[in-house]
């Protein structure tokens, strides 16, 4: 598959942010569920070289351990906040859990609960707000400390205050890591190191935000649709 080859040959070989805009959602499920089964352990691809010097001896579990995912559809378990964060690193200390929660802007709201980190959150985190769930997921990813982060636009459908807190937490999460962002709103990917525009499962365009605007292709068309005011100003 062309996109997956592109992942292996370029995206995962660099520290920085790659945003993916899938015009027809033709590859959405593949990207959203991306895991290491897409990479051939018998090849010495860039990702494998980064993770180990002996690719053939790498286990699937080990490779998955290098990937963290924060998505819109957050997976939380019926248990305590502590246990849900701890899932990122099962042998973590309390200090490590709290440090990760602070970096994710989650410590304050967790501490406000009567039982703090031992508070029960219900099935799929039903007792938490959307923004609180996202910050728990980010704390879990920070605790895991992976080399590669996949984001399914984690700030979609949030209020302004929650979005600000989560964007701040995500900025900390992405430092010195390779990140892949599945984008739905162009406003969230302007600063990406590279943007890949997909159509019918193929790489249609790639470049920075400014480069793609100058190309006057599909990305520019989508940008003009989402930001008609900017288009009007550029034409005036």
Low-confidence stretches: 35-56
Proportion of beta-strand residues: 5-15%
CATH architecture of the largest domain: 3-Layer(aba) Sandwich
Helix content, binned percent: 40-55%
- Span between N and C termini? 43 Å
Count of individual domains = 2
Listing every helix as H and every strand as E from the N terminus to the C terminus, the arrangement reads HEHHHEHHHHEHEEEHHH
Largest sheet descriptor:
6 strands, mixed
Which class of secondary structure composition applies to the elements?
A: alpha/beta
What does this structure look like?
- GO terms for molecular function: ABC-type transporter activity; ATP binding; ATP hydrolysis activity; ATPase-coupled lipid transmembrane transporter activity.
- InterPro entries: ABC1_TM_dom (IPR011527), ABC1_TM_sf (IPR036640), ABC_transporter-like_ATP-bd (IPR003439), ABC_transporter-like_CS (IPR017871), P-loop_NTPase (IPR027417), Type_1_exporter (IPR039421).
- Residues 1-59 form the ABC transmembrane type-1 domain.
- This protein is α/β, with parallel strands linked by helices and 236 residues long.
- The chain has 2 domains: 1-66 and 148-236, P-loop containing nucleotide triphosphate hydrolases (Rossmann fold); 75-145, Rossmann fold, CATH 3.40.50.300.
- Helix content is 42%, strand content 14%.
- The chain has helices spanning 2-9, 28-32, 46-51, 60-64, 81-86, 94-103, 107-112, 130-144, 160-173, 209-215, 218-226, 228-235; strands spanning 16-22, 67-70, 148-151, 178-183, 194-199, 202-207.
TL;DR?
Keywords: ATP-binding, Cell membrane, Membrane, Nucleotide-binding, Transmembrane, Transmembrane helix, Transport. This protein has about 240 residues and is an alpha/beta fold.
